Amino acid sequence: MRTTDKETAVHRTVALGLRQNAAQFTLLVMVNALVGGMLGQERTVLPLLGEREFGLQAYSAGLSFILAFGLAKAATNYFAGTLSDRFGRKPVLVLGWLVAVPVPLLLMWAPSWAWVIAANVLLGVSQGLTWSTTVVMKIDLVGPDRRGLAMGLNEAAGYGAVALTALATGYLAERYGLRPAPFFLGIAFASLGLGLSSVFVRETLGHARLEAAAHVARADGRHDHLHDQLSNREVFVQTSFREPALSSASQAGLVNNLNDGLAWGLFPILFAGAGLSVGRIGVLAALYPAVWGVGQLVTGALSDRWGRKWMIAAGMWLQALALAMVPWGDRFTIWAAAAVLLGVGTALVYPTLLAAIGDVAHPAWRARAVGTYRLWRDGGFAVGALVAGLVADLLGIRAAVWTVAALTAASGLIVALRMYETHHSPPRDAGSLTTASPHQQDGDEHQGRR
């Protein structure tokens, strides 16, 4: 099958490295910020909307939008990797933005909670396609040497935008009401994202093929059994269960987003029950992803120097400590401190898990491994909605937070016991590999698609 990379048709040089691809990398950072903004439009407003406008009483019913979002995003993440290997990264990215266009309109004018659920199914599909693809494209561009930094920049942009949008929607909701004003931001984000992705983003599949052609096995022989010709089923089994580092990362990602789903769906209701205004709830809803987003500018690069394993374990334990502070606290200052700690812990974990997947997975099936990891990670939203909702209905919100804190601490222990250090120094010239031959890229296509 002929490659979809149009740049090969005009004999464009392909190079690996952050500096060599600075313009496209920066553009993709901007695009992912818009992806994060689409998610951020819900963080403050939607839990309050379910309680105040639609009269939802059961916590599990109120969390149903997160359950729908998590299931849709998790499933789409898996297929996004396979589709981007088969058809190219850019078409998948553009498709994701097309799916996003009706989301803010549905949220603005939904006559019933079922419409909100439908909007979140579309949002989950869109996020699975767009966020997964921007991750894979950045990994393609930078090569093996700067993956942690690349993932830190990617996730910082996305979750920084989540924070800013949560803060902005909290202000708009307090001033103009829960609907429709806060969702005007989503219309702007979807329009910009679709335009930039359609016109200015370039295909990166050729970069992955170049890295696959120059792939060097680890000196310790750890990945000798992970050759480039794995089927979709083999990639799923290795990433989910069999390979120690990949499977450890997958379970940690699931638990990380389990506690994020709890924070998204129940924290605003807990804070409102304590008498906080919508504006102050918006500050708390923004503080956690803001620290998370900015922190990744540091933690992603540090994992390139210090390694992945212990940053992940430490981050999970710090998240558990922060979650335990929430049911213990009863005022804004304590919850703000907990939000900061939760953001720091998540910043240690989030880009580092993606970088670890990139370390272990062969370039020929890396997109599918990222898709499988993100299937489990974003499945955590659905698991979190079920666990937190059921425990909250039975025992109260504070008991639900304690439960998720314990699960998060156990996840860090699994990483400490099962995961090995995945980061190793690549060849000195790995960041400057180049090719100017489109014919060579076409020749590598069969190997790169396996």
From TrEMBL:
Membrane topology term: Multi-pass membrane protein
**What GO CC annotations are associated with the protein?**
plasma membrane
Which keywords has UniProt assigned to this entry?
Answer: Cell membrane, Membrane, Transmembrane, Transmembrane helix, Transport
Under SUPFAM superfamilies, the record lists: MFS general substrate transporter (SSF103473)
Stretches that traverse the bilayer: 21-39, 59-80, 92-110, 116-137, 149-171, 183-201, 261-279, 310-328, 334-354, 401-420
Where are stretches of biased composition, namely Basic and acidic residues? 441-450
Entries under CDD domains matching the protein: MFS_MdtG_SLC18_like
Q: What is its main location?
A: membrane
Q: Subcellular localization, per the record?
A: Cell membrane
Membrane recorded as keyword: yes
In the UniProt record, does the keyword DNA damage occur?
A: no
What domain of life? Answer: Bacteria
Annotated PROSITE patterns: MFS (PS50850), SUGAR_TRANSPORT_1 (PS00216)
Domain called Major facilitator superfamily (MFS) profile: residue spans: 21-423
**Which InterPro entries does this one have?**
MFS, MFS_dom, MFS_trans_sf, MFS_Transporters, Sugar_transporter_CS
Q: Which GO terms describe its molecular function?
A: transmembrane transporter activity
Q: Gene3D superfamilies, from UniProt?
A: MFS general substrate transporter like domains (1.20.1250.20)
Disordered: annotated span = 426-450
Q: What's the protein name?
A: L-galactonate transporter
